[in-house]
Design a protein that fits this description.
By secondary structure, this protein is mostly helical. It has a domain of 46 residues. The longest helix is centred in the middle third of the chain and has 44 residues.
Amino acid sequence: METNDSTPQVSVYPSRSQLTEMEPGEIRKEIELTLAEIDSTIDQLKEAASPQALRTKAVAGVKRRMGDAVGEALRATGERTYRLGATVATGMRRNPAPVAIVSAGVLLAGVAFAWRRHALRAMRPAPRSASEVLRCWLQGL
């Protein structure tokens, strides 16, 4: 494997030849700075890999994806509902007779149900105790 020697390698750390020219105090300072950088990097990695940070990142990602999915579903549902309503309204305008017939049927069914319920209640004797009231109420359901 060939390397491209034309690209200069830039390092923030002193080379071996520079270290031999440095005083021991300067070398200690370089070592302390390097150790401080390493400590900082390790702390950042620990923080990024902590269970709480990972959980927070995962929850944020799920919320973002779920929000996108829910928003898309609501938008699509809204569009379908609008189209269905427009189709029904157009059909009613073109031919109102079926709507009138269905409406009359629903009205007659409601009246018949109410009349029958009233007639059944009229035939029952009035309840005399709380338990009879509860029994009658449950039978009415």
